[in-house]
């Protein structure tokens, strides 16, 4: 897909991987809409990029519907939707204080999995009304999973389940939406320099980076954005989950 002038919706776009992708897509000439609960940060970035910022809870049907409607009115039907909104949770199934709080598990699934599906369904509804290009393509949906979907560590049962669900829905969604000319792919990032990672002491960040085969450094949000841009532009890439992780494989803990 040619990105010049194409409306692109990015959830979690105010910081981290979402911000990195927003900068890459904006540089390619896309009309970027940032959906985030950190609305002040999103507005500042949107102003810099000439885009639009909307407060949105991706796990809430009405909030997401209103946000996508606002984007539609501003830029027209979505051509690319990139799901970066998510939460990182940790907790043992059997902890020192007893079984994991079920509310923690449910919240993780609601934000990471149901939130991704929520945006996917609403974006696809807009995309089906776009004029197709010469390949018959109308839109591209890119979800964000995690390498924890494949090698979840101790304490990541909820997080891994939520990201594993994102991986599992990629192919069936791609197959179902193919008749509308809509592609669906997923990126499974490894260790990236995001605000969550930067909250850790530097020695911990350095230790994590040292365990990466090559390159032995944390990924840059711009590198995530570069892959998302390539997926959007490469029309034959469909139904795939791509690891972006310096060849690391997570150990049990």
UniProtKB/TrEMBL annotation:
SUPFAM superfamilies: NAD(P)-binding Rossmann-fold domains. One of its GO terms (molecular function) is oxidoreductase activity. InterPro entries: NAD(P)-bd_dom_sf, Sc_DH/Rdtase_CS, SDR_fam. Keywords: Oxidoreductase. The keyword Hydrolase does not apply. It comes from the Bacteria. The keyword Oxidoreductase applies. Belongs to the short-chain dehydrogenases/reductases (SDR) family. This is 3-hydroxyacyl-CoA dehydrogenase. It comes from Oleiphilus messinensis.
